[in-house]
Structure formats: C-alpha cells, structure tokens
Design goal:
Blueprint: E1 2-6, H1 11-18, E2 25-32, E3 36-37, E4 40-49, H2 51-68, E5 71-79, E6 81-83, E7 88-96, H3 99-116, E8 119-125, E9 129-131
Helix pairs in contact: 2-3
Keywords: Molybdenum cofactor biosynthesis
Organism: Mucilaginibacter galii
InterPro entries: MoaE_sf (IPR036563), Mopterin_biosynth_MoaE (IPR003448)
Length: about 140
C-alpha cells in the first residue's frame, strides 16, 4: 500500500506504484482544486490534517478495500497546505485483475475518505474564506 500525506502530489509516482503485470485494470482518481464554489471564485484551498490519525484511518480504509475486492495494489495520497486551482489534492488508485473491482474500490475509498479521514479544507475567495468541512 502507498498511503501518505504530502505537500505535492506526483501522479507519475502513483501510477508507477500501481502498475503490475498481473493487473488488467489501473484506476486512478485525481481530485483537483476547482476555481469556483457556491457561486464564488475560489483563489486557493488550504488543507490541514491530523497526520497520525489521518494515516491510520487511510490504512484502515485500504484494509477494508482489500477485504471487499480482489485488488493487486492500492494508493491513497492526500495533499496538505495551500493549493491553487487546478492542483491535484487527492489521489485514490487501485490496480486489479478486472475493471469492476478497480472502479468500485476507487469509488468506495474516495467516498469514505471524505467522510472519515481527519483532513480539513478551507476555501479562500476574493472577499473572504470559510472552512468547508468541520468534520470528521
């Protein structure tokens, strides 16, 4: 498993890690900063995490995914710090023999990450800023 919090996401590293000759599918979800939210222009996002707990929860999610689907490899990478629009901020990747498992596991992992991993996002607009998710 490749699980980490980083300042900058390297998409090539994620794909290189997930590649395996026994995998017929590599699914790589990349979440990026969009330039708008709630009708306002977003100028940047700041991400903060409770590092030790975030890694532990990401590892827990990875173990659940390996139990539910037949996966070859799995990666969960989330960025922290200030990020501009267009910047990758989260990568969920899995490789598996068949595509169904990779699609399903990827969807499960990103949905559960957003619900349960202690990473907080603050949106900055031209006129103000707001914490977007006050939990988990």
């Amino acid at each position: 498993m490749l699980i980490k919090l980083v300042e900058h996401i390297d998409l090539n590293e994620a794909y290189a890690y997930l590649h395996a000759n026994e995998a017929g599918a590599v699914n790589l979800f990349v979440g990026t900063v969009r330039n708008h939210s709630k009708g306002k222009e977003v100028v940047r996002l700041d991400f903060e995490a409770y590092d030790a707990m975030a890694i532990r929860q990401m590892e827990h999610l990875a173990k659940q995914a390996f139990e539910k689907w037949s996966l070859v490899k799995l990666a969960i990478i989330h960025a922290v710090g200030a990020k501009d629009p267009g910047t990758p901020v989260v990568v969920i990747g899995v490789s598996s023999a068949h595509r169904d498992a990779s699609f399903e596991a990827c969807r499960y992992l990103i949905d559960e990450l957003k619900k349960t991993v202690p990473i907080w996002k603050k949106e900055f607009y031209e006129d103000n800023s707001v914490w977007v998710n006050a939990h988990p």
